[in-house]
Amino acid sequence: MNYQWYPGHMTKAKRMMQEDIKLIDLVIEIIDARVPLSSRNPDIDELGKNKARLIILNKSDLADEKKNDAWAAWFQEKGCFTAKVNARSGTGMKKIQDTIQEACKEKIERDRKRGIMNRPVRAMVVGIPNAGKSTFINTLAGKACAKTGNKPGVTKGKQWIRLNKNIELLDTPGILWPKFEDQLVGLKLAVVGSIKDELLQSEELAMWLIGYLRGEYAGLLAERYQIEEDGTDLEILEQIAQSRGCKLKGNLPDYPKTAALIVEDFRSGRLGRITLECV
């Protein structure tokens, strides 16, 4: 299956971000901690070059804690400030404003030497669809400033949000990039919910997920679904269908229903804390 989703508003959003970047001191990039590389838009590196960068590993509560630490260290080695957060619950959010100030320390010092006092840091919040940008902004601001939804493509336009006298945020729409060079990237984004489900085949996502989990998290599927992790990935899918009562007439397995169940169990964290990429 060819994974791609690039509606017209994303082209418009990218142009708008290119125009606004000259106003910005810091790029805050929200990524999904379960897929730290796949959830980074390569266009943002070009857009934000020469700007301070803060990488937010969001949904870190759903990701493998050891791998969260490894990815945070990896991004720091690349010269980025990092933070592990769960924007929905607020975990890790208290330190963000201090981290923003730290990331822009040189800029603040330059302003002070020029006699420019108390100019707020301006940060552009960027990321792919459904990474949690709007939830991050609302939690940071302590109020509902940005529209949120548990599906990609909710934010369509830009919005300035003043946190306090020291920090202003520019909320931007989630944008993907026109073509995935590696279709595995598209598949992982589909698994975590950053591509609209209506465009996908859940069976393909579930089969890939089963194969990955058997390799990286052996025994997890057996424990969750009370099955044996023997045989092919398809046989595992059939066992889960049997275990969960996902059947059609004639006692045949209901593959779409079973696949949707597995993907939803992963997305919700019911399968446990899982990261789909290693450093």
Explain the overall architecture.
The chain has 279 residues and is α/β, with parallel strands linked by helices. Helix content is 41%, strand content 12%. The chain contains eleven helices and six strands. The protein has a six-stranded mixed beta sheet with strand order 3-2-1-4-6-5, sandwiched between helices. Helix 8 packs across helix 11 (255-268) and helix 10 packs across helix 11.
- Enumerate the strands of the largest sheet in spatial order, edge to edge or round the barrel: 3-2-1-4-6-5
Mean pLDDT: 88
Question: Cα distance, first to last residue?
Answer: 26 Å
How much beta, percentage-wise?
5-15%
Envelope shape: elongated
What secondary-structure arrangement, pairings included, does this model have?
Elements: H1 8-20, E1 26-32, H2 42-47, E2 52-58, H3 65-77, E3 81-84, H4 96-103, H5 105-113, E4 121-127, H6 133-141, E5 159-162, E6 167-171, H7 183-192, H8 202-216, H9 220-225, H10 233-244, H11 255-268
